[in-house]
Task: inverse folding
């Protein structure tokens, strides 16, 4: 066993998901000696990319927010610019097209007024309510966009931002305890339209409107029209690679195949303090601050009996702060996904086909096992990701680890094949002839997500276990253990690349305040 000197690093970040990389690159830019430890071979986690047979596949979704050019909510643009990097992007003319029960087909235009007009034509009796609901989302977005989004745990930041934008701060505080469902029902009555709002939330939060915080919805439902959906040329993994380049340019470092198995603590109880980490190899590395970009379940342990919790948490259960036990009662892991990465003949794709689609045949199956189907075809925006005459089709559907546990290899392979075939057959409704056009196929299950992403049960992230008041119960970056922080989708404000980038900015700012590295002035 080897051990680094205690002054080798200011900050160690466990995991190179986008939240971890934003934290690390921001801290390096502030002058902190920062090391990222990644268990896999490439950076990005579910925001990474991998290559197979001439195709560049995105690990996760390719519907990217936060890549506009103006305002404070374009967090991916800001994170890259802060370390001297930039992604060339391709604008998507629509967020996605919904294919819903009863023939309800809706494409969400990039132009806000066009989208509202399209939805109003389908529900003319709700014209006033439709405008009022989405205008309320704009109120939330405008509050967010009026201020640099940094750590809400830093009193100095809160004072400065309130002085700069007092009305925006007060407006944001008003929306913090509110969920989307309450706002939707205040303006809308049509049951099918309310179900559509449920699906508008579910497509990125995997929760219906009653459980989705209004803050998150305000960001998503408005940014898709303000900054728009913009796809990074070369694939989503380019974001992570450029953040790594910026990190290294500012003196930071990243190590791959470096699986952290333990956060090293000194002291016990309220006196416990993180002083470094231990790797699977037995090597110990010390730092002044430690950041976990693992899920909170992988960091502090899961509820007894949780599926997929096969590895020890990074912090011994005996040292887990009481606040984490409270958090586990309030939130549960969302399902993982059954994912298909397909290479298909371009001829099967009709003219004008959108990049992103969502398919559901029966409303009652929205939250069911393999109910909703998500589709992404990024080669419609960047043809360089596939060989000539081919397209990438990435499709995924929620699937729980319980459905895949305990299977012998032959049974596991058979289930993968059968479930993939059933998913492809359902997609024939929007892409006739798909089954005969497949030239390459990769199938991922919750077990794949757990193995490659290091996430308990392969979970997409936390969802409320009960109805909660908006984002108020969501934890921030500091934990009950001194010098140990969390970042990513288990922290405020939740899932999505732009959301975890927000978490990364906040975490880096809080650590920067603790280490005395932050500039006095707020970002412009």
Result:
């Amino acid at each position: 066993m080897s051990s680094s000197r205690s002054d080798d690093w200011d900050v160690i970040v466990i995991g190179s998901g986008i939240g971890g990389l934003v934290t690390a690159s921001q801290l390096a830019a502030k002058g902190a000696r920062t090391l990222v430890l990644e268990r896999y071979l490439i950076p990005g986690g579910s925001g990474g990319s991998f290559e197979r047979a001439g195709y560049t596949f995105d690990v996760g979704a390719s519907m990217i927010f936060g890549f506009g050019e103006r305002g404070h909510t374009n967090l991916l643009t800001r994170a890259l610019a802060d370390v001297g990097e930039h992604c060339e992007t391709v604008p998507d003319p629509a967020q996605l097209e919904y294919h819903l029960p009863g023939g309800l087909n809706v494409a969400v235009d990039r132009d806000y007024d066009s989208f509202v007009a399209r939805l109003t034509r389908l529900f003319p009796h709700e014209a006033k309510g439709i405008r009022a609901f989405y205008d309320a989302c704009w109120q939330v977005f405008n509050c967010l966009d009026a201020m640099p989004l940094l750590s809400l745990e830093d009193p100095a930041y809160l004072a400065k931002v309130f002085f700069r934008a007092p009305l925006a701060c007060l407006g944001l505080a008003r929306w913090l305890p509110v969920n989307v469902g309450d706002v939707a029902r205040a303006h809308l009555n049509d049951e099918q339209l309310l179900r559509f709002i449920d699906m508008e939330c579910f497509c990125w939060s995997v929760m219906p409107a009653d459980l989705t915080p209004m803050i998150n919805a305000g960001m998503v439902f408005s940014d898709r029209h303000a900054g728009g959906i913009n796809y990074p040329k070369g694939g989503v993994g380019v974001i992570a690679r450029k953040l790594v380049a910026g990190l290294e340019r500012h003196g930071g470092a990243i190590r791959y195949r470096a699986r952290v198995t333990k956060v090293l603590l000194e002291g016990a109880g309220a006196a416990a303090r993180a002083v470094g980490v231990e790797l699977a190899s037995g090597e110990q590395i010390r730092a002044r601050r430690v950041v976990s970009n693992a899920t909170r379940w992988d960091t502090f342990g899961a509820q007894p009996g949780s599926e997929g919790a096969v590895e020890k948490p990074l912090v011994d259960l005996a040292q887990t702060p009481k606040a984490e036990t409270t958090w586990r009662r309030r939130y549960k892991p969302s399902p993982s996904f059954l994912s298909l990465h397909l290479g298909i003949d371009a001829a099967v794709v009709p003219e004008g086909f959108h990049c992103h689609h969502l398919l559901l045949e029966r409303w009652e199956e929205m939250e069911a096992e393999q109910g909703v189907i998500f589709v992404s075809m990024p080669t419609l925006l960047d043809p360089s990701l596939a060989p000539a005459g081919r397209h990438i089709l990435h499709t995924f559907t929620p699937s729980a680890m319980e459905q895949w546990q305990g299977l012998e290899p032959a049974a596991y392979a058979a289930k993968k094949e059968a479930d993939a075939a059933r998913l492809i057959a359902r997609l024939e409704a929007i892409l006739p002839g798909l089954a005969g056009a497949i030239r390459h196929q990769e199938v991922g299950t919750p077990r794949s997500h757990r193995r490659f992403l290091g996430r308990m049960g392969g979970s997409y992230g936390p969802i409320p276990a009960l109805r909660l008041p908006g984002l108020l119960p969501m934890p921030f970056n500091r934990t009950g253990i001194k010098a140990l922080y969390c970042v990513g989708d288990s922290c405020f404000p939740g899932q999505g690349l732009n959301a975890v980038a927000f978490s990364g900015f906040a975490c880096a700012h809080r650590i920067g305040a603790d280490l005395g590295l932050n500039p006095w002035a707020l970002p412009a």
The radius of gyration is 22 Å. DSSP finds 15 helices and 20 strands in the chain. The longest strand covers residues 336-345.
